[in-house]
């Protein structure tokens, strides 16, 4: 079983520190940095989670992902975020999907952050060239995603898409609900209550686990339950983490 991830990637950087005083000139806390950690994020985080779950996985992503950074400044003890700074967020280039041999892969996973790497037409064309395409997208859903097998979006994105999708597309949509789990085909799949340390990257883990379990069982219901379990594990870790 061969899996291919397509989507844009970046570096996620977390700088942890402490604040002991307020700036005397302006009412903001002064953060003293104690340590910084980084890892590959976005589509590459999906790839790393698939690999961590024991499955080989190729990726097609932007070559300049190391230069595109999301830096979060965090309070070390509480994990409170003070500030996020994005650099080169406008430097994504469009993917040339005509060079991809889709027949080599059993499942195609599209991790689309809507930064310009993939257009709606690109995703539509991918879905017409392969029968098993999973998509997580920030784009507003519409007829362009009618050929996709399953679509994972969060509840905010689903609410935006209600007026642009038909019932056939809605049957393919898996809506993540944060601490409430997720919903698929009118059924809510709950998760256990845990102490949440960081939600960053949890959607990537959910998508990766969903695809890996589907490759094993061909049951989307079992895959949703497994994806919930894996996402619940990573939100108990700091930063963007793999399962």
Secondary structure: elements and pairs:
Blueprint: E1 3-7, E2 9-18, E3 32-42, H1 43-52, E4 57-60, E5 69-75, E6 81-87, E7 107-112, H2 120-129, E8 133-137, E9 150-154, H3 155-161, H4 167-170, E10 173-176, E11 182-184, E12 187-189, H5 202-217, H6 220-234
Parallel strand pairs: 1-4, 1-7, 2-5, 7-8, 8-9, 9-10
Antiparallel strand pairs: 2-3, 5-6, 10-11, 11-12
Helix pairs in contact: 1-5, 5-6
- N- to C-terminal separation? 20 Å
- CATH-assigned fold name: UDP-N-acetylmuramoyl-L-alanine:D-glutamate ligase
Please give the largest β-sheet: 8 strands, mixed
Provide the number of structural domains: 1
The H-and-E topology, N to C, reads as EEEHEEEEHEEHHEEEHH
Coarse morphology? globular
Kindly estimate the percentage of residues that lie in beta strands according to DSSP: 25-35%
The assigned CATH architecture is: 3-Layer(aba) Sandwich
What's the mean pLDDT score?
A: 91
Widest beta sheet: strand line-up: 4-1-7-8-9-10-11-12
Question: What is the rounded Rg?
Answer: 19 Å
| DSSP summary: helix tally | 6
Uncertain stretches of 5 or more adjacent residues: none
């Amino acid at each position: 079983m061969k899996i291919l991830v397509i989507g844009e990637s970046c570096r996620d950087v977390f700088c942890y520190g402490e604040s002991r005083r307020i700036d005397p000139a302006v009412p903001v806390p002064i953060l003293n940095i104690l340590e910084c950690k980084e890892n590959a994020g976005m589509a590459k985080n999906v790839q790393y989670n698939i690999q961590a779950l024991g499955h080989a996985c190729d990726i097609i992503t932007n070559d300049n992902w190391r230069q595109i950074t999301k830096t979060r400044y965090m309070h070390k003890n509480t994990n409170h975020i003070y500030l996020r700074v994005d650099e080169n967020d406008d430097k994504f280039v469009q993917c040339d999907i005509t060079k991809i041999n889709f027949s080599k892969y059993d499942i195609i996973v599209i991790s689309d952050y809507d930064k310009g790497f993939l257009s709606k037409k690109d995703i539509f064309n991918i879905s017409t060239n392969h029968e098993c395409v999973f998509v997580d997208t920030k784009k507003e859903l519409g007829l362009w995603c009618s050929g996709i097998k399953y679509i994972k979006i969060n509840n905010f994105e689903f609410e935006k898409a209600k007026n642009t999708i038909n019932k056939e597309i809605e049957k393919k949509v898996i809506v993540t609900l944060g601490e409430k789990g997720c919903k698929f085909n009118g059924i809510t799949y709950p998760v256990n209550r845990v102490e949440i340390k960081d939600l960053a990257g949890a959607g990537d883990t959910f998508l990766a686990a969903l695809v890996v379990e589907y490759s094993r069982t061909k049951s989307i219901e079992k895959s949703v339950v497994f994806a919930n379990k894996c996402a619940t594990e990573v939100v108990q870790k700091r930063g963007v983490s793999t399962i």
